[in-house]
Amino acid sequence: MAAPPSQRPRAPGRDGDAEEGGAGISVVSRVVAVLRAFAEGGASVSIKDLSEQVGLAPSTLHRLLDQLVAAGLIDRTSARRYRVSNEFSRIGALAARKSGVLRLARPVIQEVTRRTTETCMFGMLLPQTLTMMFIDKTSSPLPMPYTVRMHQARSLLWGATGLCLLAWLTPPEVERVLGRGERSPVDGHTPPDEAVLMQRLAEIRARGYALTRGEQTHGAVGMAAPVFGAGRAIIGDLCITLPQSRFSAADEGRFAQLLIQRAMELSRLNGHLPGPRPAG
Predict the structure, then answer these.
(1) Where is this region: Disordered (predicted)?
(2) How many Cα atoms are found within 13 Å in the side-chain-facing hemisphere of 196?
(3) Which residues contact 115 (CB under 8 A, 6 or more apart)?
(4) What is the mean pLDDT of each run of 10 residues along the chain (280 residues)?
(5) What DSSP character marks residue 245?
(6) Which domains does the chain have, with CATH numbers?
(7) Within a 13 Å sphere around the CA of 55, how many CA atoms are in the beta-carbon half?
(8) Which are the contacts of 63, defined by CB distance < 8 A and separation ≥ 6?
């Protein structure tokens, strides 16, 4: 004979499951609330901040965060704080492949490759970790002696694609990136000092694009122009990469003009209104 409803075992995580600070809320709902708080919040948060924001008891949050850390979605930092992981950002970028920004970018990068015969990518800024990731590309029909790594978090300190994004971030964000001390992926050199970096970023903003040789990949030239969103903040960049042996002085002006024009077009399609970025 079946047990009365009150005596039947209840599956963990069901909506009726009561837990301290989260009675009547499913485990999935609690996890979603926590991840949303991280995605919408600052660089890192404390248990106290999360408790106030999502309305869950610290003991409940400790258990959830332990599981999210074990799953690789959240990183535990010093001073009892937490932040999103590179894996969290990677998943978000992969999801963006189905979003409007990618649908808008796809024909643009295809056109750039068609007109230059070189590989073109769309690089997306990952604002929570202040890194970037290539989320789409069209490949050159010409030989390429190196591979462009897709859907992997990359430093903003090295290479045209990262520096282009860094140039339009706020000074505190630039300081945060520089403070991580990320070494060159090519030769292991330490980052430049702050004054040198700031001067370089100012030059990138002045000409409207970044150009580097062999900084992210040995033997490669990179060029990138910024793409902005509706909030006037930078969201990504339009990039070209090619072997240095195939790059001439005449190419720089031609490629730069095309990248800037198409990046501006992509910014407008994403709702960008030209003007200064709001302070914050």
Answers:
(1) 1-21
(2) 6
(3) 258
(4) 41 37 66 81 80 88 91 85 82 63 88 97 90 93 92 92 96 94 89 94 97 93 94 91 94 96 91 59
(5) G
(6) 12-84 (1.10.10.10), 89-269 (3.30.450.40)
(7) 8
(8) none
